[in-house]
Amino acid sequence: MSRIAEVVVLAADAHEVMAPLTRDNDGTRPWNNIFVPIESQWPGTFGRGWAAEFTRRHHWAELLGYLQALPWPRPESLQVLIHDEEDDCFGLWMLHDGNLIEVPLPRTERHVGPSPGIGSSADISYLHRTDSGLPMPDLPTVNRPTPQPST
Q: In the chain, how many H helices and how many E strands?
């Protein structure tokens, strides 16, 4: 069973870095999806976002490592937002000490659970809002430590 995930990449001055990801795969990346630029209603004022939809979770999971390795002109501005179809909201990943890590959002928990139709997999996780009033799943949570400032 395919799972759909929406992925948004935001990064300042990253047009050159993202350009290859807006074209057909030339064999250098582990997925075939194409990112589409997110255009501002005020031309020239934003132009730093790209979006794609993935139908297989293993593709966007590989995406994080791929994006982490790119030469971002302003790495401090990189934000990756991922909304898997079972998530209550988008999760946020940012570069911290050269690693693209999930930044814990207030009132959210990430749970590891079985993949629908496949059985159990530690690679499948779900982001849940803790303030929704809905019952929380009876699943283990993922530890998402808050990054500490570099010393």
A: 2, 8
Rounded Cα distance, 19 and 35, in Å: 9
> Encoding tokens for residue 125?
């996780």
As a whole number of angstroms, the distance between CA 135 and CA 41 comes to 40
> Are 62 and 123 within 8 A, CB to CB?
no
Kindly give, in sequence order, each residue whose CB lies less than 8 Å from that of residue 96, ignoring residues fewer than 6 positions away.
Answer: 147
> What pLDDT score does 45 carry?
55
d(CA 128, CA 131): 9
Report how far residue 30's alpha carbon sits from residue 146's, in angstroms, rounded to the nearest whole number: 29
- Rounded to 5°, the CA angle 19-49-43 comes to 95
Q: What does the block give as tokens for 123?
A: 């690679």
Q: Which residues, other chains included, contact 106 with Cβ-Cβ below 8 Å and sequence gap of 6+? A: none
Radius of gyration of the chain (CA): 16
pLDDT (tens digit, 9 = 90+) per residue, 83-92? 988 899 999 9
pLDDT digits (tens, 9 = 90+) for 19-38: 999 999 998 888 888 999 98
pTM of the model: 0.84
